[in-house]
């Protein structure tokens, strides 16, 4: 026979287990509501403020005659002064403007195999205007081969009001006649992703980028030809770098 005091003792134990179960479920439910309805919306809002939609950014530059140019494959966030400073620290030289003198010099230095570290680059157009800034790194003894990138300032800004600078980075591998116009021009290497990655490896080496990230499928069309008739191909990604806001 069960002692009379044994039954009442088991009831509080069962109630205690149920209370712990209900309490655990309630905690999980409250945590879910807090994460789903409070934390995640705030985090996503901050993410999209830092990484705005880029659907309206043109993916291809244009030549002065309106032909497709080089693909846009890089972007930097910062002031013009910060952009100039980080490129200088990464050993990129500002390109000279195109003048009769600079045009004659680049032709002569290419033929005579003389160094011209800040040789001019032909203009390309984005947002209805030619590039705002252009930089290059020479390869070899003359301007025939070089790394180079053009940048256009956009109206897209980060939360601090600093603009996005969209760029087209390509590698000039030789000088020759344009396949489309017959003009003397540089011909680019087809793998534009290699030049995108080269640019960012030099920028990251400076320690002046606070963040880098990739925008996949920025390009839906992943191959084509530029205005000179040179083929290019890409994985479609846009590489973005945020310059440290503390940089003067």
Describe the SSE topology.
Layout: H1 6-50, E1 60-62, E2 68-71, E3 74-77, H2 80-89, E4 93-94, H3 100-112, E5 125-126, E6 129-130, E7 133-139, E8 145-157, E9 163-177, E10 184-188, H4 192-205, E11 209-215, E12 223-225, E13 231-233, E14 238-243
Parallel strand pairs: 3-14
Antiparallel strand pairs: 1-2, 3-9, 4-7, 5-6, 7-8, 8-9, 9-10, 11-14, 12-13
Radius of gyration using CA atoms only: 28 Å
The percent range for strand residues is 25-35%
> How are helices and strands ordered from N to C?
HEEEHEHEEEEEEHEEEE
Q: What is the total number of structural domains? A: 2
Please state the overall shape, judged from the principal axes of the Cα atoms. Answer: elongated
Return residue spans where pLDDT drops below 50 for at least 5 consecutive residues: 43-50, 176-182
- Based on the structure, what is the oligomeric state of the protein chains? single chain
Walkthrough of the structure:
The structure is a single chain. The protein is an alpha+beta fold. The chain has 2 domains: 1-50; 60-243, no CATH class. 33% of the residues lie in helices and 31% in strands. It has 4 helices and 14 strands. It has helices at 6-50, 80-89, 100-112, 192-205; strands at residues 60-62, 68-71, 74-77, 93-94, 125-126, 129-130, 133-139, 145-157, 163-177, 184-188, 209-215, 223-225, 231-233, 238-243. A hairpin with a 6-residue loop joins strand 9 (163-177) and strand 10 (184-188). The protein is elongated.
